[in-house]
Amino acid sequence: MDLGSGIPRRCDCRAATVVLTSNTARNPGRRFYRCGAISGENHVFKWLDEAHDEEFVVVANKVATMEKDLADIKADLADTKNGISEIVPLIECLRVKCYMN
Ligand SMILES: [Zn+2]
Questions:
Q1: Residue 53 Cα, ligand 1 centroid: separation in angstroms?
Q2: How many other C-beta atoms can be found within 10 angstroms of the C-beta atom of residue 17?
Q3: Please, what sign has the CA dihedral across residues 85, 86, 88, 92?
Q4: What integer pLDDT is reported at residue 101 of this predicted model?
Q5: Could you give the 3-state DSSP secondary structure of residue 33?
Q6: Helices (H), 1-101
Q7: Which keywords fit this entry according to its UniProt record (predicted)?
Q8: Is the pLDDT of residue 100 over 80?
Q9: What's the 17 CA to ligand 1 centre distance in angstroms?
Q10: pLDDT band at 3 (very low <50, low <70, confident <90, very high)
Q11: CA of 9 to the centre of ligand 1 (A)
Q12: How far is the CA of 34 from the centre of ligand 1 (A)?
């Protein structure tokens, strides 16, 4: 099973994940994500602390992408405003000529 990076929200069996707490001698009190339907080899298991460390990177990358997209949108908006400011006088000029004829 490929869990991907970050918080596992769904298992391959489509069940939502749940957070549980380990009570093993090796990992006492350590929380983990697990398939909400079945525990087993082909179902989600991931330590919560590791998932959250990965999730921070996932979210940071998404924010970086959104910041780049926003900069692109602002540049497109500025270009559009410039285009409109060039067209408006032309429309006004045409309108005046129409009234004169
Ligand atoms: Zn499952």
A1: 23
A2: 22
A3: positive
A4: 56
A5: strand
A6: 48-100
A7: Metal-binding, Zinc, Zinc-finger
A8: no
A9: 8
A10: confident
A11: 11
A12: 8
